[in-house]
């Protein structure tokens, strides 16, 4: 089937350029975080794999951009159930690293099904919330089915354990429900339920997860244990100064003081080498991508497309907010990567595919 000329003519190159800029920044950060020293090759095996993920992600982004997103609504439940099945396989036969069982080994590629589930849930919620609510907004009875669809994967992901991804699902769900239109009484009921559920949720957290939250309040209470991540990250961010120490010149990352420096704390590596100015530039690129995403949501001519686009934008926004908040010491460490910048195959490819759907939503408003 030939490609509609209008898709080519109205193709959203702004999303493509901003995405590739962030991916390039991420590649540089991964090169630095994995660099072994002056006598080692700049492109470590980790950096080579990241370059491969970027190439695969670019293909996924373009493919999603030319795909008609409206077809996803018809298969929303099938996609969701299939993602749950794959996620269940992780709990049964998944690859375990660092005490967490989050990956399925596929030979040269380790698939992280929770990343697929994020996209599947956005599609499902967009489908479930595509109808405009009655006068007065959504009521509790309207949220029973969507809440169950969110709760099931959240519990499965927390079982891995992966508190960060579970929290992200909850935040994206809250964003979509709020945007869909909430009754004030419903909003009050939800807030009350969250307050009552918090002590129960605390009871089910893993001991190390509780320690991370407590250490956020006073990291110096256990500087070599639970508070180590925050302290070392703050040192890296602060030591960058106005303009940083220069590419490949960061000491916190080079001397391996930073934990998870290619994933959760990649921002700390970047901030140390490029300083406050570089960090502001990185945030500016994210701000341009997010603001353009919100513009697409407002311009969309169908509610399913608008909710789908909002889910993608919310995912980027909340991941950036939480990751940089963790690295800066203003939020607890919950294990969320920086989108398009942190090392990762599944996370990078799925995120670029999501941004491809954002392009698809924007382009097809000219085809209605």
What structural keywords apply?
4% strand; 368 residues; 3-stranded antiparallel sheet; 15 helices; mainly alpha
Helix content: 55-70%
- Based on secondary structure, the structural category is mainly alpha
What's the arrangement of strands in the largest beta sheet? 1-2-3
Average pLDDT, rounded to a whole number, is: 86
Strand element count: 3
Low-pLDDT segments, ≥5 res: none
Q: What is the CA-based Rg, rounded?
A: 21 Å
Q: Distance between termini?
A: 19 Å
Our count of domains comes out at 1
The proportion of strand residues reads under 5%
Q: How would you sum up the major sheet?
A: 3 strands, antiparallel
Order of helices and strands: HHHHHEEEHHHHHHHHHH
What is the topological layout?
Blueprint: H1 5-9, H2 13-33, H3 45-66, H4 70-74, H5 76-93, E1 95-97, E2 100-106, E3 109-111, H6 113-128, H7 140-159, H8 163-180, H9 184-204, H10 207-217, H11 228-239, H12 251-254, H13 266-299, H14 303-328, H15 346-363
Antiparallel strand pairs: 1-2, 2-3
Helix pairs in contact: 2-3, 2-13, 2-15, 3-15, 5-6, 5-7, 6-7, 6-8, 6-14, 6-15, 7-8, 8-14, 11-13, 13-14, 14-15
